[in-house]
C-alpha cells in the first residue's frame, strides 16, 4: 500500500524531473507569468549568456505594476505613453524582451490586460495540479484552483525561462481548517486576516498551506483566490485548495483551459487531487468560522489584526520584547494610540483593488454597500481599480461603475495601482487609507502612507462613513 | 557568480524583527532594468532616523548585517538582495529568514546565516566595537573573544556558493532529462503541455 499523501505531495511528485541525493528536486514548472518589474534583469541574463526561453508557450507576460490606471489611449485611439521615464523604460524593456524571446504578451491596451494574478485564472492559464511561478510573492493566489503556485526572485525567473524548471526542496505541510458558516458581513478577506493574525507573518515559513474544512468548501473560487493570495503574508510560499466542482465550473470554457476530450481527461485527473485519508500535516490550525468578525489591521504588519469591534492594542500587552518594540513603532507610524476604538479611526483614502480583492465579486460586494450612498465629505480620494479589463467590462455591463462614480469614487483602468507605491496612485505621507490590498508595510502605499487592510465591503463602509466602520451596521440582512 | 568562503569585518547591529523587503528597498526603486546601483536606496526609510546604524561611521561599509526574526519577509523582489550587495553586505545573520529572500540572497552570493536568538544577542554586542568572522566551509561564526557559533546550511547551496557555480548552466546540462519529462507529460497529461497556442 502506498503511503497516504497530501494534495501538495501529490502535485509535487508529479513534477519531479530528478531527485538529487540530498533531497533537492529538479521540479518542472508548468506555467510562468511574467511582469515588467521583476523580469528585465532575467531577460538580460539570458541575453548575456546567449540562452533562449525554453518554453515560450508555457509563459505569459503582462505589465501591471507600474502602469498608471488612467486612460491608456487618447481620443484618436493612440496609446498614451507612461509619463514617468523609468516606468516607461521598464515597460519598453518588457516589450522588447517578449518580442525578442517570442513570449506571448498581453499589452497595456488589450482588454485582457490586468494584474497577473487576476488574468491567470481568468484566462484559464492557471490549472489545477500544475506548478506555477511568477516573480511576485502573491503568486500563491493561484493555489485557489489547486496549483502549487509561488513567488520567485528574478534569478529564478531567469532559471525558469532558460530551463522550465527550478531546483527546490520540498516544503513542509500545514493544514488550516476552518469549519462552519461565515457570519453576516464576514468575507474571505476577514478569514485570511484572521489566519495571519493567529499564525503571525512567519507562522507558515517553510510550509505550504492546504485550506480545508466546510467554510472553504462553501467558498467561491474568487473568495478562495483572496485567501490563497495572502498565504505569503503568513510566511507560506503557497496555499492550496483541493480542486472541486466549483473549480471545474469556474474553469470550463476559459480561453486557455482544455477543451473537448482533453477537458474530460483533465477533470478525471484533477478529481484525484485530494489529500488522502490518513495523510499527515506537519502543522495544523483550526478556526471556528463563528469566531471570525469583520477584521481590520491596526499596525504595519499583516499580522496586526483586530476585529472592527476591537481597539488598538497596548504594546505592553505583548509578552515578547521585540514584538512590544515593533508595536510601539507601528503605533507611532500609524498615528494611533493604545485603547483607541478601531471604529473611531478616520480615513481620508479608500482603495478598492489589488490582486487580493479586485475581481467581479469584490466589486459587486462593495457596490452593494455603496449603492444609494455617497462617500463622506472627509474622503480625499476613493479609487476603484478593477483587476483586469474583462472585470472592468463585466462591472460596467452590470452598472457597477455608475454606482461607484455616483457615490464619488474614481473608476480606473486595471493594474496594481495603490497596492504599492510604484505608479502614480499613492497615498500621501501621514494620510490614512482603508485598503483592500494585502500589505500594510510602512511606506507600501507611498512614503509615510498609513494603511488599514480590510475587505471590499469594509472599505465601502469606511468610504461612506469617513472612518473604519462595522459594515454590518450598514447592511440589511 | 563569485566564490564565497570567508566573510569578515564589521557588522551592522540592526537587530530588528520582521525586516520586510519594502524596508530593504522601497517600491520606487524597483523601476530599474539593472542589477546594480540600488545601494543608495537601501533602508531608505530607516535612514531618515539620524541615529540609524547604516550611516553610523562606526559601521558604514560593513560586510555583515545582524537582524531579528523573519528577515526579508514580504515581496519576492530580488532587488532586496541586489541592494544589499550594492551596499557591500555579503552576509546576513538572523534567527530566521523568509524563504523567498534566502533563495534570492543565495543566488546573489549573499550568505544567510541562521543562529539562535542568544547568539544574535551576543553578536549584536560584539558588533558594536569588534569584527565578526564567518567561515562557510567550517560553518562557523567567530569573534575576537573566542565566541564560536556553528550554523547549518543546505549542502547544495554550500557547494554552489563555494564553487561560484552557475545554477542555470548546471540545470541546462540536464536538458535530456527535462525533455524526457516533457515527453511523458505530453502523453499523460496533454492538456498541460501547451498553454498559449
Ligand atoms: S496588486 Fe499588489 S500585491 Fe498584487 S501583484 Fe500587484 S503589487 Fe503585487
From TrEMBL, chain A:
SUPFAM superfamilies, sorted: Aconitase iron-sulfur domain (SSF53732)
Cofactors, names only: [4Fe-4S] cluster
PROSITE patterns to which the protein is assigned, alphabetical: ACONITASE_1, ACONITASE_2
Binding sites annotated in the UniProt record for [4Fe-4S] cluster: 355, 416, 419
Keyword Cytoplasm: no
EC number: 4.2.1.33
All copies of domain Aconitase/3-isopropylmalate dehydratase large subunit alpha/beta/alpha, residue ranges: 9-466
Pfam families: Aconitase
InterPro entries the UniProt entry points to: 3-IsopropMal_deHydase_lsu, Acnase/IPM_dHydase_lsu_aba_1/3, Acoase/IPM_deHydtase_lsu_aba, Aconitase_4Fe-4S_BS, Aconitase_4Fe-4S_dom, IPM_dehydratase_rel_enz, IPMI_cat
Cofactor binding, note field: Binds 1 [4Fe-4S] cluster per subunit.
A single GO molecular function term of this UniProt record: 4 iron, 4 sulfur cluster binding
Catalytic activity from the UniProt record: (2R,3S)-3-isopropylmalate = (2S)-2-isopropylmalate
Subunit text: Heterodimer of LeuC and LeuD.
Function: Catalyzes the isomerization between 2-isopropylmalate and 3-isopropylmalate, via the formation of 2-isopropylmaleate.
Name of this chain's protein: 3-isopropylmalate dehydratase large subunit
Lineage summary: Bacteria, Pseudomonadati, Pseudomonadota, Alphaproteobacteria, Sphingomonadales
Gene: leuC
